[in-house]
Each structure stands twice: as structure tokens, then as C-alpha cells.
Automatic annotation (TrEMBL):
This is Enoyl-CoA hydratase-related protein. The keyword Lyase applies. It comes from Virgibacillus tibetensis. PROSITE patterns: ENOYL_COA_HYDRATASE. The keyword Lyase applies. Keywords: Lyase. CDD domains: crotonase-like. The lineage of its organism: Bacteria, Bacillati, Bacillota, Bacilli, Bacillales. Belongs to the enoyl-CoA hydratase/isomerase family.
Length: 259
């Protein structure tokens, strides 16, 4: 495992815990931290025993307070066209491992968008989600305008983006922004429990299911149904499918092998 300056990494029970560790700046995502997250995602993808990546913020105040505003202040128009934060978050969405955001405290701007790029969001009671970019004269540019409206609907997304309002964990769960809502104390345990449930599944099926949902969501339903069918055809050809169905018939637990 690499040594990171702004991240803490721990691998435990098939889970890659990625902790954003810059609490003195509320885990604001500067260029160096983004670069390290990129490397960490590559690292997690290569770890064969890892099925789930849990992203969390160090300290209880903040998941991530967004892009580093000091760096943002100096950025020129064409610098917004590089893959940057949006590219990294697309990579996280397309990652073959399941990604879970465990959100305690502030998840603002690019921090909220990071959580939106994850497959599952678990919000603690003290979570504060918001896209306050318009206060800075910019717009959410790391997938926020697109992912938020796809997750909670266009009306609610426009309200959050245009007013910059901040919602707590309970509200986030109520409107579907967060998948689960829990106490701060239970947050890590809840993330662990979700990861444990996912980890019982075969890695190929996990990857194909993610692919079918994410890729199918953005296109017409007929083509998306074919994505589902073709993904299923791949699954049907795996040893894991033979094992999963045989295990059911033989009344035993499946042991998946990722092939
Ligand atoms: C740089 C930040 C920061 C940020 C906090 N800090 N957020 N530095 N970028 N996004 C720093 C502060 O400057 C301060 O540093 C220290 O962290 C503690 O912050 P405080 O404001 O004193 O803490 P608190 O009162 O607890 O308030 C926390 C907060 C507030 C509500 C999160 O800091 C805040 O509103 N931050 C900005 C949130 C935001 O607007 N995010 C969107 C960014 S734009 P010092 O040195 O003074 O101790 C974005 C665009 C993404 O994300 C898309 C781009 C493509």
C-alpha cells in the first residue's frame, strides 16, 4: 500500500477504507488530495480481495467541504475543461468495486458531488449536504448538476443548486439523496454492515450490475434493456453463476471466485 499525505487507507475484511484526512481544512479537496484519491482508487481496484470502497472524512466535522477555494480562486476558464474533479468522479462511478460514502458533517460542493458519485450514501444525523457553488459565482462542476437531478429529481435538485441550501442527514434520506440514515456513532458500523452484505456476492456479478444500472440510466430504455441482457449473458458464462445457483440447490453458502 502506498503512503499518502492527505488520505488514511486501511484494508479490513474486504473493505478499502479511504479516509480524507485534512480535517484542519474541513477535508477540502485540493489538487494533491484529488491526485491521491485517484491513485487510491487504482490501488483499490487492483486489490483482489477488496469488493467495497468506503469513503469517509477524518474528524466528525466534515466529510469534505468541497474543492479548495484558494486554488479555485486562481483557476482560468480553460482549466475547467480538463477532466479534473469531474473526470475523477466519473472514474469513481465506473469503478468495478462498489463505492460507499459514509457522510458525517459537511459534504459541500465537490464533497457532496464525491458522495453523489458513489453507489451508496450513508448519512449520519449530523450530515450537511449542499451545493453552495453559486455563492462563489460558479456552478457545481463535478457532476452535481447531472447526478443530483438523476438521484433526487430535477425539481429538488434545482432547488438545492439555486438556493445553495444545506440539508441534514435525515432530510437527505427522506428525499433519496442518502440511501441510509443513522446516528454518528453507528455510521461506520452501518457502512461496514452494508459492505459485508455486498461482499457476499460474486465480483463479476457486482461489476455487471453496476455497469447495467449506471450505463442504462442515461440512455433510452430499449437500449438499456439490451445492456442488461448482454450483461446477463456475460454473467451466465461465469463459474460464479454455476456456483451461485448450485449452492442454492445444494442448500449451502456460495463461494465465488471472480471468474
Ligand atoms: C479551502 C476551506 C474550505 C474549502 C473550509 N476551509 N472549507 N479551505 N476550501 N472548500 C478552511 C477554512 O478556510 C478554514 O481555514 C478551515 O477550513 C476551517 O473552516 P471554517 O470555515 O473556519 O470552519 P467552520 O466554521 O466549521 O465552517 C465549515 C464550512 C465552511 C461550513 C465547511 O468552511 C465553508 O462554508 N466552507 C466552504 C464550503 C464551500 O463553499 N464549498 C464549495 C466549494 S466550490 P483557516 O486557515 O482559516 O483555519 C466546489 C466546486 C466543485 O466544491 C466543482 C469544481 C469543478
Amino acid at each position: 500500500m502506498k503512503n499518502y499525505e492527505n488520505l488514511d487507507i486501511e484494508i479490513k475484511d474486504g473493505v478499502y477504507w479511504l479516509t480524507l484526512n485534512r480535517p484542519e481544512a474541513r477535508n477540502a479537496l485540493d489538487a494533491s488530495m484529488l491526485n491521491e484519491i485517484d491513485q487510491a482508487i487504482d490501488e483499490a481496484e487492483q486489490e483482489e480481495n477488496v469488493k467495497v470502497i468506503i469513503i469517509q472524512g477524518a474528524g466528525d466535522k466534515s466529510f469534505a467541504a468541497g474543492a479548495d477555494i484558494k486554488q479555485l480562486n486562481a483557476r482560468k476558464p480553460l482549466e475547467a475543461l480538463v477532466p479534473g474533479m469531474q473526470g475523477l468522479y466519473n472514474k469513481i462511478e465506473n469503478c468495478k468495486k462498489v463505492t460507499v460514502a459514509a457522510v458525517s458533517g459537511y459534504a459541500l460542493g465537490g464533497g457532496c458531488e464525491l458522495a453523489l458519485a458513489c453507489d451508496i450514501r450513508i448519512a449520519a444525523k449530523n450530515a450537511k449536504f449542499g451545493l453552495p457553488e453559486l455563492n462563489l459565482g460558479i456552478i457545481p462542476g463535478a457532476g452535481g448538476t447531472q447526478r443530483l437531478s438523476r438521484i433526487i429529481g430535477k425539481g429538488r435538485a434545482l432547488d438545492m443548486i439555486l438556493t445553495g441550501k444545506i440539508i441534514d442527514g435525515e432530510e437527505a434520506e427522506r428525499i433519496g439523496l442518502a440511501t441510509y440514515y443513522t446516528s454518528e456513532k453507528e455510521l461506520a458500523a452501518k457502512a461496514e454492515a452494508v459492505a459485508a452484505e455486498i461482499s457476499k456476492k460474486g465480483p463479476v456479478a457486482i461489476q455487471l450490475a453496476k455497469f447495467a444500472v449506471h450505463k442504462g440510466y442515461d440512455i433510452d430504455e430499449g437500449t438499456a434493456m439490451w445492456i442488461e441482457k448482454l450483461s446477463q449473458a456475460v454473467a451466465f458464462g461465469t463459474e460464479d453463476k454455476k456456483e451461485g445457483t448450485s449452492a442454492f440447490i445444494e442448500k449451502r453458502k456460495a463461494t465465488f471466485k471472480n471468474r
